[in-house]
Design brief:
By secondary structure, the protein is an alpha+beta fold. The protein has one domain. Helix content is 42%, strand content 28%. The protein has helices spanning 14-58, 63-74, 90-96; strands at residues 78-86, 104-114, 118-130, 142-151. Strands 1-2-3-4 form a 4-stranded mixed β-sheet, with helices on both faces. Helix 1 runs antiparallel to helix 2.
Length: 153
């Protein structure tokens, strides 16, 4: 029996077939990384806005303006809701923020008093809905939450 030597002509489509098999997997991985980065950026923006709002509130600044500037300056979010109250629980704050639309951000500021006159701490709850970047892994908006607490010293 004679062995036949393969010529380069017999392997001419091999690279194209391998490329066609691996490209969908690589594109799916790339889009997944981009989607994760998009959602992670939204979470970081909300966390930073809550912290900035709490810091501004504890030094008697304009909390609503601080959160609005921070959120709208860093992302595609639009600041649409603000509520300030005393002694709300986290669940009550989340209920107030549950009706936001896509790309909207709301904030609830809770002042906790030490006795009746002095503010002991400020709690800021921020929530926003963000649309997916690609829609490949689902088209429903994601609700993101962040909160920050600053104590008066």
């Amino acid at each position: 029996m004679r062995l036949r030597k393969l010529s380069p002509k017999d392997e001419s489509g091999q690279s194209l077939v391998e490329f066609a098999l691996i490209v969908p997997v690589l594109l799916l991985l790339l889009i997944g990384i981009m989607e994760f980065g998009w959602l992670f950026n939204g979470q970081i923006t909300l966390t930073s806005a809550a912290r900035e709002g709490a810091r501004t509130a504890i030094v008697d600044g304009n909390v609503q303006r601080a959160i609005e500037d921070h959120v709208e300056g860093l992302s595609g979010f639009v600041f649409t809701y603000y509520h300030e109250d005393e002694d709300l629980t986290e669940a009550q704050a989340k209920d107030l923020l549950s009706g936001l639309g896509d790309s909207e951000v709301g904030a609830v500021v809770v002042k906790v008093y030490d006795g009746e006159t002095f503010v002991k701490e400020i709690r800021v709850y921020v929530s926003g809905k963000i649309k997916p970047f690609s829609g490949l892994f689902g088209t429903a908006s994601r609700q993101l939450w962040a909160d920050a607490v600053m104590r008066k010293e």
